[in-house]
Amino acid sequence: MALLALWPLGKGNVDAAVVRRIREGLSEEAFERLRTSSMPAWMASAIEQCGRE
Fold it and tell me: Distance from the CA of 14 to the CA of which of 24, 29, 35, 39 falls in 20 to 30 A?
């Protein structure tokens, strides 16, 4: 579901704040599943960058 939320925003509009809001709504386990799921490179990059913060 979280990946579906990122699609309409698009590559240029997904930043750390957006990913942080998604992360806050997920358990650690759910966020880890999201982080390791198959997704376009731009989504993976945004999620990884937030995961390091």
Answer: 29
Domain count, the chain: 1
Alpha helices in 1-53 (DSSP H): 2-9, 16-24, 28-36, 41-51
pLDDT tens digits, one per residue of 12-48: 898 888 988 988 999 999 999 988 999 999 999 988 8
Residue at 8 is within a domain: no
Q: Rounded distance, CA 10 to CA 16, Å?
A: 14
4 is written with which tokens?
């579906």
Sign of CA dihedral 19, 24, 1, 29: positive
Name residue 5's amino acid. Answer: A
